[in-house]
Amino acid sequence: MMKYWRKPLDYDQVKVPRGTVVIIKERCKGCAFCVEFCPKDVLKMSEEYNEKGYHPPFVAKDGECVNCELCEMLCPEFAIYSLTIDEEGGVERVKVTAQQDEMSSVQKESGSADESVEKDIEFKVAIGKVGGR
Ligand code: SF4
Ligand code: SF4
User: 97 CA distance to ligand 2 centroid (A)?
Assistant: First the structure.
């Protein structure tokens, strides 16, 4: 079959962005938009249930995320987002800070932290390169 596209001239110099996906399972309503539209098929729906009784997605192809943020834009529940992985393997901090702000506002409003947000931050600290100043 004839190909209708060409390789860009600077193809060898193009660096494919890398990302890591964070899923806040307890916020998920199981709509599967993120799974359906991820261009790299990174995500799949899991068999497990969250507290609301929905199946959240999981990362099926670790290391394949290109940080396009489509899942993040499509998710109606703000339950998923991606973080940039830099060339040294470090994870960006901007969204982590936003999440920490969100957690403290939840704490102010309700007197206690949203457990899913707290776990999410723990996760990002666990995957490294974030948390310490
Ligand atoms: S950021 Fe893009 S490539 Fe990564 S999981 Fe989301 S939709 Fe897929
Ligand atoms: S788009 Fe959001 S709510 Fe829908 S399955 Fe994915 S994480 Fe869950």
Answer: 22
Q: Where in the sequence is the domain holding 105, given as residue range(s)?
A: 95-133
Residue 9 lies in a domain: no
Distance CA 97, CA 128 (A): 15
Q: Does any ligand 1 atom lie closer than 6 A to the CB of residue 70?
A: yes
Number of domains in the chain: 2
The pLDDT tens digits for 38-87 are: 999 999 999 999 999 999 999 999 999 999 999 999 999 999 999 999 88
CATH number at residue 49: 3.30.70.20
What DSSP element (H or E) covers 85? Answer: strand 80-85
Give residue ranges with CB within 6 A of ligand 2: 28-34, 56-57, 74-75, 77, 79-80
**Residue whose CA lies nearest to ligand 2 atom number 6:** 34
What is the number of the ligand closest to the CA of 74? Answer: 2
Q: Are residues 58 and 25 in the same domain?
A: yes
Question: Cα–Cα distance between 82 and 104 in angstroms, integer?
Answer: 21
